[in-house]
Every structure is written in C-alpha cells, then in structure tokens.
Amino acid sequence: MVRVDGGVAWFEPEQTTSCGHCASSAVCGTGANGIGSIASRIELRRFSLENPAGLRVGERVVVGVDDRALIKGALTAYALPLLTALTAGGLAQGAVGSDLVTMAAMVSGLIFGLAMARIAARRLSRRGELAPRFLRRASPGESCG
Amino acid sequence: MKDFALMMIGAALVNNVILARFLGLCSFMGVTTRIDTAAGMGLATTFVITVSSMADWAVQHYLLDAYGLGYLRTVTFILVIASAVQFTELTIRKVSPSLFQMLGIYLPLITTNCAVLGVALLLVEGHMSFIGSTLFAFASSLGYSLVMVIFAGLRERLALAQVPRLFAGPPIAFIVASLLAMAFMGFSGISTG
Question: What is the ipTM of this complex?
Fold first, then answer.
C-alpha cells in the first residue's frame, strides 16, 4: 500500500523481472523511475480500494479478482477488436479483392472494434467485475512469484 | 475460401507455433501455471501477432521490397513488433484503465516473445497476399493460445497429482509437454508404409 486518501487506499502491484535481480539493475535503467522502467510501469498500474481493514502505508496485502474477470477482460480488449478487423477485412477482400482496400478495411474494423471494446469495458467496470478485491494481509516473506 | 480454411488449420494445428516450430517456449513454461493467466497471455499474443503481421506485410511490400532493403528485414520487424506492443499498451490504457491494470502485465513480456518475430519471418517466406498473411498469423497465434490453455489445464491437474519428488515441478511439466507435442504430431499424419 502506497497512499491513503480518507477511506481510500492506493496500492501498487509487486513486480520484478529477471533484469531487476541483476547486480547492475540500478545503473541500467531497470531500477530507475524513468520512462519505460519497471518502476514507472508499476506506477501506471496503481489501483485503489476502499480501505477495508484499517491498512497503513507500507503494508503488503493479497488482492484478487473474480475468476472469470481476466478472461472477460482479455476477450473484451483483444478478441473483440480482432474479430471486427478480420470481419471487415474478409468482407472487403470478397467485395473488391485489392490488398490496399483490405488493409484499409481491417484498420477501420480494428478502430471500430476498439470503440466497442471501450463501451464493453465501461459496462464491466460499472458492474464492478474488473475491480480487485482485498483478500487478506500478506504474511511476512510472502511473494507473488 | 477452402484454401484459406486449410491454411488456417495447418497453421494452428499441423505446424503449431509451440509444439512443431518450438517458438515461444519461455511463455509456454512460464505463464501456464493457471488457465486464466494462460488464456490472457494467449489472447494478448494473438492480438499483437495479428496486428504486427499486418504492419510487417505493409513494411515488407512498400518499403523493404520496393527499395531493395531486404537485408534490414529482421531489424525492421523487431522495431515494428516493439511498436505494435507499445501501440497495444497505449490503446488498452486509453480504452479502459481498469483493463490496463488487469492485463498490462502481459504486454511487455510479448515484446521478447520469439513467436511474434518467428511468425512475421514465416510470412515473408510464404509470399502471401495481405489477407492470406493476416489469416495465417491469426491462425498461428490461435494455435499458440490453444496449446497454452491445454498445457495450463494439464499443469493445474499436475499440481494436485502425486508426483515422485525427483520429477516434481518443471521436470514433470517438460515430460507432459513432450507428450502433448507427440499428440500434436498426429495432426501431420502418421506413415503406415
């Protein structure tokens, strides 16, 4: 847990890479807060929960998401845009048969699919299906690896 | 239409990216401890492989072939794949921050997945049309996802099985992977003569 705002607690996921274990990680950018570094990626994935158990900054907790949330999220973000892109490309290929037209249709289908994914993701968020839930405090030495 | 269907079945099952071409083995062993994470990784990789193959086809035809720069193919494709991953990451973040928080962990891993570059290079050798190369890439990545999910299912069962201590963990996983590869060899036909 990295911050408390009233009744809301902010968390960052623990994430390490094989590069992060290297003795030189501090000087090669892996350990720094620069753009594209692991630290900056983790900061982007910061999330909030209602402070459920009076947690304090620095405490480590275990959170979880619904069993099917990851699959639903992945289908929404990746499968939906791909299906619209491939459908648009297939229809354009059948109708015109030109590579350039097919390419333009696929890009248009991809953009349309991403717009649909945005709507679907909002709906999932509104239902709370993508939100992580507090499970328990992490025991000392427990890691996600 | 029939040609495309046969090509897709061949790319997904007969010449499976993981079990026949031995590409993407690090994610095959590393992200298959649970079915949902394997499916998440598989779908993310499917998206990146398909999008980057579209970009690679355009770069190959309108830049590398047109200006005789074929010797820069590998470097250019690596750049295109890294850009596709970055594009995907930015797009998912814009489309839904909640989805990005949940799925963002897989995206940086895909940049170093050799299956993405491998499929792009196979497409060049195939000399296909745009739609053909995109469908080939899509089918190859579907085959990758299928094997990831099957193997994750087997590993979930293995976690509950009583395995001799010597074989527990990665050794039994490698043995199961080899049996799965032999099962997929059946798709390429068995000679009886």
Answer: 0.85
